[in-house]
Amino acid sequence: MLYGLQPWSASTHRPDPEASSVVITMGCGDVRPYFPGRRHEDWKLYDAAGQGIDAVRPIRAEIRDRVQALVEDLLPNR
Fold first, then answer.
1. How far apart are CA 6 and CA 14, in angstroms?
2. Closest CA to 24 of 32, 49, 62
3. What is the C-alpha to C-alpha distance for residues 37 and 44, in angstroms, rounded to an integer?
4. 29, 43, 51, 77: which could join 55 in a potential S-S bond, CB 3.0 to 4.6 Å?
5. pTM to 2 decimals?
């Protein structure tokens, strides 16, 4: 199951990790809960906070490429 990219926040709705195949974190240094038995990946990314559009575009492209690779890995016959 793939979910939209959204920041982790105790105040936002969180999908049930037991229904997830993969838990992705983005190396932001935030404290995150641990979901045992799930595949975990921490994608180290540059922090886009406060950056201009020219700095953010490559970060966005890297996330897009990683998501595409993840989908291909999870659904190879798609």
1. 10
2. 32
3. 21
4. 51
5. 0.65
